[in-house]
Specification:
By secondary structure, this protein is of the alpha/beta class. The chain has a single domain, classed as TIM Barrel (Alpha-Beta Barrel), CATH 3.20.20. It is about 30% helix and about 20% strand. It contains 9 helices and 13 strands. The strands form 3 sheets. Strands 6-5-4-3-2-1-9-10-11 form a 9-stranded mixed beta sheet. Helix 1 packs parallel to helix 2.
């Protein structure tokens, strides 16, 4: 084993936002659920700490992780491990960002999403400007809903020029060429997100050098294929790693299709695959 990329998603499902396009909006975890999530994350962090091969981690919680102290602590701790190449998290930036001063900024990165209607524009932009001032590596994104277009244009104009603003195609939405051109003017890589990618039988890094791990340590090739490879903590999953083609007809999420080898996105995002920062903005 030379290098393993892990997409970790524990049981946390609570979020402080109420986005109409998200099924987990305003969901609340019980105290018991939060305790279980914390214990699962601490177990995962301890496992990563004990390995000798190179590891990169992207936290992809259903809810908002950075409002929880244990996620901030895990990011800081993992960023200081010499065998961890990158540790990143998807976040809405609703929490303060001063905690990043404790991390090794050579390894930490944030994948931030702006949700118009959920947070005042100036507050979100201020968080981005503070991150840039602190030297934190981050990307910013928005969902390509028609009513988000003006906000996206404003954000692109106001963000530091070196900050990548990505646009996710709205789930189930078909974009005509005129619409797609508007979004591509904001994000030159929007054409990659515009349509689902046919994937059945294609070579994919998931299940080989990239895996998905849940709070119990159950390992799957990615978040979108339910078949279990094994468990992280008993070693069975690592023994099962091997190249394997994608079993699904299509892949329509960036954290999935970025690993499809024929798309060549590891070249597009070289050095920034987990935090979604293309070479153009590195």
């Amino acid at each position: 084993m030379e290098h393993l990329t892990i997409l970790y998603r524990g049981p946390l499902a609570s979020c402080d936002y109420d986005c109409p396009y998200c099924p987990f909006a305003k969901r609340r975890d019980s105290t018991e659920q939060l305790h279980a999530d914390r214990a699962a994350l601490e177990r995962f962090t301890e496992w990563v700490s004990g390995q000798s091969f190179r590891i990169s981690v992207l936290f992809t919680p259903w809810g908002e992780g950075l409002v929880r102290s244990w996620y901030r602590r895990a990011l800081v701790e993992l960023s200081h491990l010499p065998h961890v190449e990158r540790v990143a998290i998807q976040t809405n930036l609703s929490h303060r960002v001063s905690w990043t001063s404790e991390a090794d900024l050579a390894r930490l990165a944030l994948w931030a999403t702006y949700h118009p209607g959920q947070v005042p524009y100036d507050r979100f932009l201020g968080k981005c400007q503070e991150l840039a001032g602190r030297g934190v590596r981050f990307s910013v994104g928005i969902v390509g809903q028609p009513d988000h277009l003006d906000a996206a244009r404003r954000l692109r104009a106001d963000l530091p020029s070196g900050t990548y603003l990505w646009v996710n195609a709205a789930e189930g939405r078909a974009y005509d060429d005129a619409e797609a051109d508007q979004w591509t003017a904001i994000d030159p890589l929007f054409p990659v997100s515009r349509r689902p990618h046919p994937s059945r039988g294609l070579a994919c890094r998931t299940g080989d050098t990239v895996v998905s791990v849940d709070g119990d340590g159950t390992v799957r090739r990615c978040h979108f294929v339910p078949a279990v490879l094994g468990n992280l903590y008993d070693g069975s999953a690592l023994d099962a790693l091997a190249p394997r083609p994608c079993p699904l007809d299509v892949c329509d999420c960036h954290i999935g299709y970025v690993h499809l080898e024929p798309l060549g996105l590891y070249d597009t995002f070289a050095g920034g695959v987990l935090e979604r920062i293309p070479v153009l903005f590195s």
